[in-house]
Every structure is written in C-alpha cells, then in structure tokens.
Amino acid sequence: MTTLLLPLIQILFFYLIPFISISLYFLKLRKTINSEAKLKLPPGPIKLPLIGNLHQLVPGNSLPHQSLGRLSHQYGPIMLLQLGSIPTLVVSSAEMAKEIFKTHDVVFSGRPVFYAAKKLSYNCSAVSFAPYGDYWREIRKIVMLELLNSKIVQSFHAVREEEIKDLVKTITISTNSSSSSTSGFRIINLSELALSLANNVVCRVAFRKKFNGYDDHENGKSRFREMLHETQDLLGGFCMSDYFPWLTWLNKFNGLEVRLDKCFRELDSFYDEVIEEHLDPERPQTEHEDVVDLLLQVQNDPNQAMKINNDQIKGVLTDIFIAGTDTTSATIVWIMAELIKNPAAMTRAQEEVREVAKGRGKVEESELSKLNYLKLVIKEGFRLHPPAPLLVPRETTEFCRVRGYDVPSGTRVFVNAREIGRDSKYWDNPDEFRPERFLESSVDYRGQNFELLPFGAGRRGCPGINFGVVLIELALANLLCSFDWELPHGMRSEDLDMEEASGLTMHKRSPLCLVAKLVYP
Ligand code: HEM
C-alpha cells in the first residue's frame, strides 16, 4: 500500500501542484494583460516574464528603498512595477504623496496581507495589519483613545525617566571602569543600549515588567529578546508567496511555516501568561495602569461599541512591540551618529540641554518644551533617516485615477519617505545634516507636510507618534547632558559607517560605538 502511495504523492507534489499553479498564473496573466491594455497605467520599467520587476528591487548591495529611489529618477515620482505577480505603485515626491494621502486617502487606506504578518498579528487583528474597514476603524479608535492619547502617554513619564536614569547610570559605570579599553576610556555600544532602553520602556508600559524580566535562566537566554527578534525577522524577511500568492503552498516545505508556528506559539503563550497575571485578583496594585490593564478594561466595558476578544488584545500588543521599539531606538542611534559627525550641531545641542538642566545634571520630561534646537535636530534626523523608509505598505481598495494615471484596485503601494526627505526640490544640500534649515520653516513630521513623512499621513498615519517622540527627546537630552561623546581613539568622523541595514526597520548597519566622558553638573 505504502509503495503505491509514495509515487502518487511524489507526482502530486513535484508535477501536479506546480503545473496547476503555473497554469493558473498564465490564465491570470492573460486576463491582466487584456484589461491593462485599456488602461493608462503609470510609467515603469519593462517587466520580465513571471518575475516582473522583482529583480530590480535589490540589485547588488542596494536596499529596496535605494533601488526604488534610483528607478524613480528614471521613471518619475509615480511609477508602476510588477513585483512577482503583484502590481506595485511607488510614490517618490511630496506632490504625489499629497495626492494619495489627501485627495485619495480612503482608496489608499488598505493594507496588503503578508503571509507572516497575518499569522503573527492574529489574523490581522493588529491595527497596523487590519484591512481597511469597520474592524480597523473601531480597534484604531480604541488604541488612539484608550492607549495612546497624550494624557495616557504623559502618565507613563515616570517609567521613561527611571529607565533613562538607569541608562545614564549604566554608561557612567562603564566610563569609570577603564579595563576594556586601550586609551583609558571604555567604548559604549550605544546601539545596544538604545534598543534595551526602548524595549524596557515598552515592556514596562505594556505589562509592567522589565524587558529582561522574562529570562530563561536555565539556558542563560533572554526569552523575550529572542522572541521579539524572531518576530521582527519574520515580518521583515522576504517571503516568496507575498509576491507569488499561487506559491503559498511552498511555505509548508521551505521551513517558513514551521518557523512561523514556533514563533507564534511562543508569542501566544507569553501573552497568555501576561493576561493571566493581570486577571489575578491578588496582583499588587500600582499607581498607573499598564496597556494590558487598559485593554482588559475596554474588554469589560459595556459601553464600548465593539467587544474585543483576547486575540484582538494580543494583536494590539504585537502592534506596540513591533511598531514601538526598533523605530525609537534606530532614531536615537542615527541622530547620535549625525551629531558625532557634525560637532557644531553637537555643541549647540549640548549647550542648550545643559542650560536647561543647570546644576541638576538631568533633563526632566516637563522641560522638553524648552529644547528648541534639540527638536530641530530630531526633525533633521527623521528627514535623513526615517526608520520606515518605505512606510508601511498600503493597498488600493478600489480603482482610482491619480494625476491622469489609472491605478487598479488591489495595487500595492510604497511611499518612498527616505527619497522624498532627500529631494533637492524641497531641500537645499539634501544629504547634509543641518538642523538650522528648520529655523525659518514650519515644516513638521506630523503628516501635514508631505516633504517630511517619517510617520506616514492620513487615516493610517502612525498613532504612536507622541509615544515615540517623547522617548527620543528625553533620551537624547539626557545623553547629551550627562556625557561628552567622542569617536574611539584613532577614528575619524569620515570613517564612521553610515550604511543602512535591511529589515523591518532601517537601522544603522554597524553598531554605533562611542566613547562617553561623564560631565559633572
Ligand atoms: C520613531 C517612532 C515611530 C515611527 C517613525 C513610526 C512610523 C510609522 C509609520 C511610517 C507607520 C505607517 C503609516 C502610514 O501607513 O501612513 C506607522 C504605523 C503605525 N504605528 Fe508607528 N512609528 C513610530 C512609533 C510608534 C509607536 C511608539 C507606536 C505604538 C506604541 C506605533 C504604532 C503604530 C501603529 C499601531 C501603526 C498602524 C496604524 C494603522 O495602520 O492604522 N508607532 N508608524
């Protein structure tokens, strides 16, 4: 019996399924070609059979936003590519971004469903991955009103201040121990410390536990760190079926499904543990509620229009971990790297924070509004290094005409925020880090000025902007207040690697390692 079944299964997997998939692909292709012939589509490069323009996305060592930026110089600020079998619109100018985020915002408010994201966001229960519609509207409203409004973000100030105090203490202890250095000063890995800071703040705000509190002591590993890292890796990695949906069956055989299942099970049991702890009536009360407390209150509130279940709570927690940690730490690192390369800006920012912190040696959250120059530094950092260079992909929900071009329903959309932030049409010497350019300008990053879009814009613009920015401001203010920063001995600022890494968030490719010298108040 088994000897008969085996060849049959082999025929099915190796011949029949690929044959059916390829036939379906060509049938769809014929239908698409027929309907495209009648449309006035945006310009774009010639497509190869089967893969379309996929080969042009990552030529050589380029990252997708860099390759797309180069293509847009050739084909214009609105271009259409075919990535695998997915029509993809790429928007690369402020004018075109305004068209899609303002004039056609509703049509452009869909999100494509990616294979890994669907599973890890509890079947798209997270705000960021939910399809445009009633569920997304309600869950976003809950997140905006109950979790991320400015009063609640402000209520977490003690967590931020404590974590930054710990960060300064860790660096101070390192600077006092000269054991591991060659020049008498210890080298600080700021990339690692900034990531720990963001993770600790988000974990304490989300469920009142330190990021390092979930350690696997037996194996000496941080269970949470590994889980978060794997989730980000899966969400940011390349998945064939996101470009060739007819190849979804491959995920069962290429190891992806197994990896995803394992990651999901770990994440899920971790969330279950956290929710159970929060439901324990014996749990000690504290002054402030955390995100899980707030979501459980929403779940039990009879006045809420939508009843949320535990999977939806877990989806929102995934939102907060994924969207709120790497983006913030990457920004802190890029800005510190730019300041070290631009000593005049560093000195000006330090003079400002030290004046505000006079005699106390630290900046408090209530004093951030006085740091005008630091705010310009942060704007300039976001312009040059938006942590999500292509934002989060959108998808058109129906047919639409943009500046005379036809954009079919279901088109995937990338907005190249990094390219727009360096467009010489809006920015003088666009590659220069020059915070003073904002002195005479009211341009801001909150989604109203389409030449600066690190948080996106429109209905689906980032709801965590206040949460992210306040941590970035407070961290930078205190790093600049407490320490003088230098490059390691013998290194020149031209040697500092400013290359970008691939992944869900645009990190600096190599960690930022600097020498810190404690400044006494
Ligand atoms: C430097 C920090 C951050 C940056 C640069 C950033 C950037 C972005 C971008 C570009 C988008 C896509 C916007 C669009 O499609 O127009 C987004 C969406 C989102 N962000 Fe952020 N983000 C940051 C911090 C945060 C934080 C701290 C949270 C939560 C605590 C958060 C939660 C979200 C959520 C839930 C969405 C999805 C919104 C939707 O689809 O309706 N973000 N973010």
From TrEMBL:
Alphabetically ordered keywords of this record: Heme, Iron, Membrane, Metal-binding, Monooxygenase, Oxidoreductase, Transmembrane, Transmembrane helix
UniProt cross-references to SUPFAM superfamilies, sorted A to Z: Cytochrome P450
Molecular-function GO terms, alphabetical: heme binding; iron ion binding; monooxygenase activity; oxidoreductase activity, acting on paired donors, with incorporation or reduction of molecular oxygen
Entry keyword annotation includes Heme: yes
Ranges in a coiled coil: none
Cofactor: heme
Membrane-traversing stretches: 6-27
Binding site for heme: C462
Family the entry assigns: Belongs to the cytochrome P450 family.
PANTHER family: CYTOCHROME P450 71A9-LIKE ISOFORM X1, CYTOCHROME P450 FAMILY 71 PROTEIN
Protein name, as recorded: Cytochrome P450, E-class, group I
